[in-house]
Amino acid sequence: MEILLAQSREIDCLKAEVASLNEKLEEKELIMSRSGSIAEASLELNRVFEAAQLAADQYVRSIRMRYSE
User: Fold this and answer.
1) DSSP state of 69
2) Looking at residue 10, what DSSP letter applies?
3) HSE (side-chain half, CA atoms, 13 Å) at 21
4) What is the pLDDT along the chain (69 residues), one digit of tens a residue?
5) Cα–Cα distance measured from residue 30 to residue 23, given in angstroms and rounded to the nearest whole number
6) How many Cα atoms occupy the beta-carbon half-sphere of 56 within 13 Å?
7) How many Å apart are CA 3 and CA 9, to the nearest integer?
């Protein structure tokens, strides 16, 4: 009977440990999915900045051409 009780306690401890590890795994997966989203957003933002820079450069060139004539 004592052996069964000890095994039952061990099973309960192992179940609690598995639950804790599952929570940590879910947190890590969430962090990983957010990282991907952040990386994608960063790339998109870089494209926006590049387009804005090109537009600004073109505007400056047109102003210089206008005043150099």
Assistant:
1) -
2) H
3) 6
4) 889 999 999 999 999 999 999 999 998 888 878 777 888 888 889 999 999 999 999 999 999 888 886
5) 11
6) 6
7) 10
Count CA atoms closer than 13 A to 55's CA, side-chain side. 6
Residue with tokens 């598995």: 18
Hey, what are 42's tokens?
């960063």
What is residue 1's DSSP assignment?
-
**What is the number of residues in the chain?**
69
Query: According to the model, what pLDDT value does residue 21 have?
Result: 94
d(CA 27, CA 21): 10
